[in-house]
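[step 3/7] fold_predict: job queued, chain A
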Amino acid sequence: MFTFTLPELLQQLANGLTIGCLYALVAIGYTMVYGILRLINFAHCDIFMMSMYFCYYFITVFSLPWPVALVLVVAATALLGVVIEKAAYRPLREAPRISLLISAIGVSYLLENLATVLFSGVPRSFPAVGNMQEMVEIGEVRVARLAIYAPIMMVVLLVALLYLINKTKTGMAMRAASKDFETARLMGINVNKTISVTFLVGSALAAVGAVIWGQKYPQIQPYVGVMPGLKCFIAAVIGGIGNIKGAVVGALMLGVLEILLVWRFSALSGYKDAFAFIILIAILIFKPTGLFGETFVDKV
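[step 4/7] structure written:
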């Protein structure tokens, strides 16, 4: 019979919440791009991977102080997202939807192979950032500071993002473009600029998620973003892809559920990743639009 104590449960919930916050930061990027372009940006997981390499080189190779390095990592990753949008997606804006999807897959493979050529396939150790890996005791629960910082960072960034979307002209332009490009253009909105800002914001959030992931799993290689990226996509689908709050809820649910399932069924820990895909299949069967999703009508 499976028995546990309250401190053990709280410990596992803290671990699940940390992973869920990481998934949320990356899932937001998927859901923002889909909300405007109806595109699953498969390159997003590799933007995540590139940001980990940026952090490694800024801190380990160039010996920059970590606060400076993190600012540069977010800036470089955001710039990479904008460049990808302009080079690979904008020229296909009027093309059939399948062309955009193929382009996204191509960019993903390009980044993975480019990283292999530039950085080699040899795994590298991700540098420690601040005191995130230091352990602290809260009552009878012992957790890394990362488990405290991750939810705080996620909440702060989510509030800032919701303010951007709901209270600013840029956010109003995003919401208008997500409904209809032509109508948005008639209202004087620069749709291309709006989409670029969407990629910039989504990529910047992925950079923060990559730093959290690097503190939790401190190893980098060119395919490090594949599985986290897939799980973040699943989180976005669970919440209702295209819905930012839904993506966050789906990510937290997936992170906590994944950890609790492995804890409860420790003999199946080797199949941890399979749990996420089982959940995805169940959601697609019983609730295809996700928990908070809407049925979209394609733009013409």
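[step 5/7] annotate
The chain has a mean pLDDT of 89.
The CA atoms of residues 39 and 165 lie 19 Å apart.
exit 0
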